[in-house]
Amino acid sequence: MPTQASTKSAGWKHYQTLGEHYDNERPGYPISAIHEIASRSLSLSHGSRRIVDVGCGTGIFTRMLADALDGSFEVLGLEPSSIMIERAIEVTKTSRPIQFIQSPAEQLPFGDQTVGVITAAGAAQLFDRTHFYAEAHRVLVDTGLLAILQNKRRHETGFFQSFELFLEEFVPGYRTGTYADARGGHSVANFDDELASDNRFSKVMIQRWDWPRTFTTQSFETFALSTIQLKMARAARGNELIINELRSILSRHCDASGTIDVTYSAELTTAVRIVQ
């Protein structure tokens, strides 16, 4: 049975008001990372063909993964926000055999050793990971795979460099390299270090893929307004100021056609449940 988490993650509550437009213009994930997870999942020797995407949001990554697995796994998406789950079900409909369940990452609704693979894409920074790792270990079969995927902005130069400075100025507690966390603030999330020091997991590995994305000024504004950081900035400094500052940065970096080219780095951290 699921363990009882004494600490509940607060960060996900921001998404209760972002669900309707959340998946508009989201950057998604590179197909190479999706195929890597699918390949690793299909090659595992365990018998469980259940894969659970934790913190699935509106199901963007869940649908990509289900497509890559092509029916080889039972695919489930877990998400604590009722608004996000409703959107995931609406968008997915009957196009893919995915079951969406409202559930926190800290209390997985599965029996012991009944899941072959657990994924978390762009979400694990919001988990109470002490409880999440314990739950992942509990429900994964021996040699089951834990895969955490995170998009990171390449912010050394260009638009993303200016955007990071904008976030540092206007988002309370934000610093480059930090993420919104389970306590409602911002902190560093070193998944590889955490898993490497956890004796319940082994074979910790990091892989990275740089991938380009082109936004229009409008599409990036739409995307930015769906993030926790912009929600916090608007609450702290007012909607008009934040929108005007964001548009000023966009206007300085876009080309004559109103587009902006950026680069993301997708970082995949994987670990295997140790045979007990």
Largest sheet strand order: 3-2-1-4-5-9-8
Uncertain stretches: 1-7
Helical percentage: 25-40%
Number of separate strands:
9
Q: Could you state the CATH homologous superfamily of the domain at 11-153 and 179-212 and 263-273?
A: Vaccinia Virus protein VP39
- How is the main sheet built? 7 strands, mixed
SSE topology sketch:
Blueprint: H1 31-43, E1 50-54, H2 60-69, E2 74-79, H3 82-92, E3 98-102, E4 115-121, H4 129-139, E5 140-153, H5 158-170, E6 179-180, E7 186-187, H6 191-196, E8 201-216, H7 217-224, H8 228-237, H9 239-253, E9 259-273
Parallel strand pairs: 1-2, 1-4, 2-3, 4-5
Antiparallel strand pairs: 5-9, 6-7, 8-9
Give structural notes.
The structure is a single chain. The N terminus is likely disordered. This protein is globular. 35% of the residues lie in helices and 26% in strands. By secondary structure, the chain is an alpha/beta fold. It has 9 helices and 9 strands. It has a domain of 188 residues: 3-Layer(aba) Sandwich (Rossmann fold). Strand 2, helix 3 and strand 3 form a beta-alpha-beta unit. The chain has a 7-stranded mixed beta sheet with strand order 3-2-1-4-5-9-8, with helices on both faces. A two-stranded antiparallel ribbon has the order 6-7.
